[in-house]
């Protein structure tokens, strides 16, 4: 117990055997070290996956939301306000909000959908039947029924949202856009 | 500074190079040179590896290092779990469900952690039994035994506090029963229970307290006692086999490295394999979220507490204090004081019939009570179907996909409208009047106007009515216009605003 070397026994007596012993021991040490490293590496795989979870999950782009049937919407004569529920995932939480959008028709009579968020400062644009215009209540930005800027401070027209038809439903891909820039830019 | 480096430089030359050890130790030695050669890290490593084991290496000695490995595994997996876990009654269950059902390898890591606690109990019992049968607590190992007893208690504390953290039905009700036991303590029982729970009932404060115990306080104590335990073990040295003259044993010593190291590593690999296979093929489940108003739930503790649980059932009358406190305290004291009660140097178990039979009797008794409890649960017509239903509930919950928790001001307006019909009408008025254009569809505000969530707390109904009819100057400047509505619509609008909390 006093001195480790003493415990090895026969240090001076059998030098040759000890040298052989030492080599065997260091080879075994190497083997053990390699084995431990291997097992350690294997065990760290789940740990790495656990930490890297945010990288491993593919963000589900199921942000397509149903607005209504194409049949119903085809008969509109002026822009119609619709609400869609937008779900944002934040780890184990979800944040649900209702977003307003307008279904309208462009010059050729095709359906198009606009975000109601004003590209100026983000107020909610509303359709005014009596003016046949979209009006933003904050700074009186005005837009035509197909979203073009008529007058006021907004830097661009209303932001058109991507749509597609699934079955008989019109679905929209809701996105937020940067304000105060002349061209539409998606905010991730 | 200069003088120091001179000294260091000179010392480095003065140190004789070790010739009989591996490259790692030599490398460490060269870089950790200190004035005293016995203080070199390499020497410490060597002292550890060359620790002489009287009578040679043995498989009987693997349990201590197995426990060290398991402790390491629990620390690592525990730290990782906290990456996603939130200790609050609101979120604990959701976050554990998230770990179990969504996070990559989450179920595996949680299972390793949960099964790891069972593995610690098993290996600890083997370690204690080996120590007991070999009489290794005797002589100069008394304090070593006491430090081990402290670790035993701390480990039981870890499993008790950890059990609550998932906040499912099982966790909640088992801990309710567990903390209720404290009320049997005379005079201060109720205060103790309230203190541990953070209130008279189980709740979010209980979870906070258990979390702090599980993650900070008990681990800190465990580190301290493991250090003491290992230090004392090194001081006293391995006890060696129970038989043989001391002189003969001294002749047949064997260094710790390589044979005992190999045994220990093999045992660690066995533990890893068992835990890994279990975690992979039978991952730990999570039950439905704790529902404190459920009166049907039949709680059952973790398997290693079942014997104690069964024992407590026998003591429901006036003798409860005797059975629940006095007898367990006595047995514990007997166990802790063992090296002081059994002072003879005799280590051979067959020459110590009294202590060995008491030890055996206690363990057989515990095993028997566990078996009785299990049999009763299977046979009791009131209990068996309920337990089966609970198991089915757990299975059903595990099959459901992960449901994220609805956060913050999500859909407050819509929820309010759904639950309160007058407020629902008010929401319609709100939409018709175009209020959302400035206050936002979900009433959380836009750059034109502030959020209306919480406005009902700020103003009473009369005040709301007056500012709706006649907005303040600041509001008018911001673009607010007076609201002109009939009485009924105005009332429902105000009801809606009042309900926005």
Give an overview of the whole structure.
The complex is a heterodimer of chains A (188) and B (501). Chain A is of the alpha+beta class and 188 residues long. Chain A contains 4 helices and 12 strands, in the order αααβαβββββββββββ. Chain A folds into 2 domains: 4-54; 64-187, Rieske Iron-sulfur Protein, CATH 2.102.10.10. In chain A, a hairpin with a 4-residue loop joins strand 5 (126-128) and strand 6 (133-135). The longest helix of chain A has 37 residues, at 15-51. Residues 1-16 of chain A have low confidence and may be disordered. The longest helix of chain B has 33 residues, at 204-236. Chain B contains 24 helices and 3 strands. The model of chain B is unreliable at 1-19 (pLDDT under 50). By secondary structure, chain B is mostly helical. In chain B, helix 2 packs antiparallel against helix 3 (41-49) and helix 4 (62-81) crosses helix 12 (256-281). In chain B, 31% of the residues are buried. At the A-B interface, helix 1, helix 2, strand 2 and strand 3 of A face helix 3, helix 4, helix 5, helix 6 and helix 12 of B.
């Amino acid at each position: 117990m006093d001195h480790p070397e003493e415990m090895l026994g026969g240090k001076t007596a059998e030098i040759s055997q000890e040298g052989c012993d030492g080599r065997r021991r260091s080879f075994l040490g190497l083997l053990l070290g390699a084995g431990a490293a291997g097992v350690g590496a294997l065990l760290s795989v789940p740990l790495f996956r656990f930490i890297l979870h945010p990288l491993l999950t593919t963000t589900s782009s199921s942000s397509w939301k149903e607005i209504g049937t194409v049949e119903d919407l085809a008969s509109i004569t002026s822009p119609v306000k619709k609400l869609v529920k937008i779900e944002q995932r934040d780890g184990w939480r979800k944040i649900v909000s209702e977003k307003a959008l307008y279904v309208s028709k462009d010059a050729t009579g095709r359906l198009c959908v606009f975000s109601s968020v004003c590209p100026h400062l983000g107020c909610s644009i509303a359709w005014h039947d009596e003016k046949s215009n979209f009006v933003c209540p904050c700074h009186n930005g005005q837009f035509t029924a197909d979203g073009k800027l008529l007058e006021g401070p907004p830097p661009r027209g209303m932001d058109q949202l991507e749509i597609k038809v699934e079955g008989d439903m019109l679905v929209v891909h809701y996105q937020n856009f940067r304000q105060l820039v002349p061209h539409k830019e998606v905010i991730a | 500074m200069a003088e120091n480096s001179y000294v260091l430089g000179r010392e480095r030359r003065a140190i004789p190079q070790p010739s009989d050890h591996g490259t790692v130790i030599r490398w460490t030695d060269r870089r950790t040179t200190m004035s005293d050669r016995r203080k070199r890290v390499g020497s410490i490593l060597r002292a550890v590896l060359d620790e002489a084991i009287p009578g040679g290496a043995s498989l009987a000695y693997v349990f201590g290092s197995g426990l060290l490995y398991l402790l390491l595994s629990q620390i690592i997996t525990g730290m990782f779990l906290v990456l996603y876990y939130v200790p609050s009654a609101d979120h604990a269950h959701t976050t554990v469900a998230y770990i179990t059902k969504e996070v990559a390898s989450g179920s595996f890591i949680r299972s390793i952690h949960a099964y790891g606690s069972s593995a610690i109990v098993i290996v600890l019992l083997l370690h204690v039994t080996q120590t007991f049968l070999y009489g290794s607590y005797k002589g100069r190992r008394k304090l070593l035994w006491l430090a081990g007893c402290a670790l035993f208690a701390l480990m039981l504390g870890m499993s008790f506090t950890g059990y609550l953290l998932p906040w499912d039905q099982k966790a909640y009700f088992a801990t309710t029963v567990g903390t209720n036991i404290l009320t049997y303590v005379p005079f201060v029982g109720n205060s103790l229970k309230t203190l541990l729970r953070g209130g008279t009932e189980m709740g979010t404060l209980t979870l906070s307290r258990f979390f702090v115990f599980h993650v900070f306080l008990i681990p800190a104590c465990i580190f301290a006692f493991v250090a003491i335990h290992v230090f004392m073990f090194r001081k006293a040295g391995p006890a060696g086999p129970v038989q043989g003259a001391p002189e003969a044993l001294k002749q047949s010593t064997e260094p710790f490295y390589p044979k005992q190291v190999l045994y220990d590593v093999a045992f660690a690999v066995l533990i890893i394999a068992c835990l890994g296979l279990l975690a992979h093929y039978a991952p730990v489940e999570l039950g439905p979220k704790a529902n404190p108003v459920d009166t049907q739930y039949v709680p059952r503790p973790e398997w290693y507490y079942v014997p104690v649980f069964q024992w407590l059932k026998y003591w429901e009358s006036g003798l409860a204090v005797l059975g629940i406190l006095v007898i367990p305290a006595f047995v514990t004291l007997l166990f802790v004081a063992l090296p002081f009660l059994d002072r003879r140097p005799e280590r051979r178990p067959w020459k110590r019939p009294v202590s060995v039979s008491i030890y055996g009797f206690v363990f057989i008794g515990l095993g028997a009570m566990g078996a009785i409890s299990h049999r009763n649960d299977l046979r009791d017509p009131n209990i068996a179907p309920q337990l089966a239903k609970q198991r089915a509930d757990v299975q059903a919950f595990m099959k459901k996909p992960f449901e994220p928790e609805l956060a913050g001001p999500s859909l407050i307006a819509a929820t309010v409208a759904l639950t309160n019909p007058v407020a629902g009408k008010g929401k319609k008025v709100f939409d018709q009047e175009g209020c959302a254009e400035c206050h936002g569809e979900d009433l959380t505000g836009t750059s034109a106007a502030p959020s209306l969530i919480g406005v009902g707390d700020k103003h009473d109904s009369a005040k709301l009515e007056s500012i709706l009819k006649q907005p303040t100057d600041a509001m008018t400047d911001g673009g607010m216009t007076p609201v002109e509505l009939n009485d009924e619509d105005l009332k429902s609008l105000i009801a809606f605003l009042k309900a926005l909390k």
